[in-house]
TrEMBL record:
It comes from Centaurea solstitialis (yellow star-thistle). Keywords: Coiled coil, Glycoprotein, Glycosyltransferase, Golgi apparatus, Membrane, Signal-anchor, Transferase, Transmembrane, Transmembrane helix. Pfam families: Glyco_transf_34 (PF05637). This is Uncharacterized protein. One of its GO terms (molecular function) is galactosyltransferase activity. Residues 317-344 form a coiled coil. Belongs to the glycosyltransferase 34 family. It comes from the Eukaryota. InterPro entries: Glyco_trans_34, Nucleotide-diphossugar_trans. It is a single-pass type II membrane protein. Gene3D superfamilies: Spore Coat Polysaccharide Biosynthesis Protein SpsA, Chain A (3.90.550.10). It is found in: Golgi apparatus membrane. The chain crosses the membrane at residues 12-34.
């Protein structure tokens, strides 16, 4: 047996040392050869390491909401009397919101302009055979718009109050969203049959700094003509504050869950010669409410299509598309491909070229929201003034028009707006 430290061990040690050097040399040769023969991947690996350092580490985490933090401090959520339905009034909401934001500081930055989108539909399958398909596409349209602009969205398809059925159900969803999302300054309701048709445009919140409720319409029609069709409740924004909760309480008091519903039905019919629904009730509040505190906080938006009627819009899309194409042809930067995440930056680049386009009716700017009022895609009980087929054709056209603005960032387009199934790759134009 060879003893430790004996002369017979020297050759063995030398051989082991030589083998180790040889293996190390071979490994280095392989690494060097791979790096030299594949400089692109070698550069990518180097950049990847640097990127990880820049993106943030334990000492410098990337910015964002702290979704995993909720301090063990009692808030309004811990109050047993706090509720989300209209039969549980909420008081001092502004103070409660401020306290919640103080306890959750990661949500404070940008909270004054934060929008939370709410939409919904019925819980049962549609009677119209194409209804569920169209509702899915309408919802996807809203998800696309929300993703592009960093908005959260809630799709409700249950009755949060069993008695607030039909068009009244939106009020329950909006109120619940206000209380569930104290981090949001604005709650934006948009009907299930409305679509965003300008994916770049954003609501100009600076216009509403002193207002708490924004709805599309014509002030003269509402306040002077006392016409309930002078506004449309299919798309509206409500500030997340105590004033708005009180406003919703007054609005909902005319609804079917209220003990005063029969009284309001008679009043609304006498005033507008139309049944009691969310829109006649809203119009009545604005027409009959004499308090400056209400009208001064409501903005009836006429400058752009916060809600645009599809019959007026559907035949303008080709001309608008041609106008945008002409501008793109002249301006190379507008044709540049980019990540979807930075779409807002390119939307700003468009603005100088759209300054003469105008807004709303007669404009060649993309209509912001197109609402298929009267089409009833789920029930199929459309307004007899137009056919079901004309609704379907227009919905295909409008939804594909909006979809093209999204698909562009993925390299595709619908060549035929009447066919939602076919897309073709976009050619890259320098």
């Amino acid at each position: 047996m060879t003893q430790i430290g004996s002369p017979n061990r020297k050759p063995t040690v030398f051989l082991l040392f030589f083998a180790g050097v040889l293996i190390a040399f071979l490994c280095l040769s392989v690494i060097f050869t791979y790096s030299s023969s594949d400089p692109i991947h070698a550069h990518s690996r180097s950049r990847s390491t640097d990127t990880c350092k820049c993106a943030g580490n334990d000492e410098n985490p990337p910015p964002g909401f702290n979704l995993g933090f909720d301090p063990p401090v009692l808030t309004f959520y811990d109050d047993p009397s706090f509720g989300y339905t209209f039969d549980t009034p909420v008081k001092n909401w502004d103070k409660k919101r401020r306290q919640w934001l103080t306890l959750h500081p990661s949500f404070v930055s940008g909270s004054e302009e934060r929008i939370f989108l709410v939409t919904g539909s019925q819980s049962q399958p549609c009677r119209n055979p194409k209804g569920d398909h169209f509702l899915l596409r309408f919802y996807r349209n809203k998800v696309d718009y929300s993703r592009i602009h960093g908005y959260d969205i809630f799709y409700n398809n249950v009755l949060l109050d069993p008695k607030m059925v039909g068009c009244w159900a939106k009020l329950s969803a909006v109120r619940a969203a206000m209380l569930a999302h104290p981090e949001a300054e604005w709650i934006w309701w948009i009907d299930e049959d409305a679509a965003f048709t300008d994916m770049d445009f954003k609501v100009p919140l600076e216009r509403y700094k002193d207002r708490n409720f924004v709805v599309h319409g014509w002030p003269r029609e509402v306040y002077e003509e006392k016409n309930w069709l002078g506004l449309n409740a299919g798309s509206f924004l409500v500030r997340n504050c105590q004033w708005s909760l009180d406003f919703l309480d007054a609005w909902a008091d005319m609804g079917p869950q209220s003990k005063n519903h029969e009284k309001w039905e008679k009043i609304l019919w006498k005033t507008f010669k139309h049944g009691a629904d969310d829109q006649t009730a809203l119009a009545y509040l604005l027409v009959k409410e004499k308090e400056d505190n209400l009208r001064s906080k409501v903005h009836i938006e006429i400058e752009y299509y916060l809600e645009g009627y599809w019959v007026v819009i559907k035949d303008t899309l080709k001309n608008i598309t041609d106008k945008y194409a002409e501008i793109e042809k002249r301006e190379k930067v507008l044709r540049r491909r980019h990540a979807e995440l930075v779409s807002e930056a390119y939307a700003k680049l468009w603005e100088p070229h759209l300054k003469d386009a105008g807004y709303g009716y007669g404009s060649w700017r993309r209509p912001f929201v197109t609402h298929f009022a009267g089409c009833q895609p789920c029930s199929g009980k459309n307004n007899p003034a137009f056919s079901r087929e004309s609704c379907w054709e227009a919905m295909d056209k409008v939804l594909n028009y909006a979809d093209n603005q999204v698909l562009r960032n993925y390299g595709f387009t619908h060549p035929d707006l009447s066919n939602p199934s076919v897309v073709t790759p976009l050619s890259f134009r320098h």
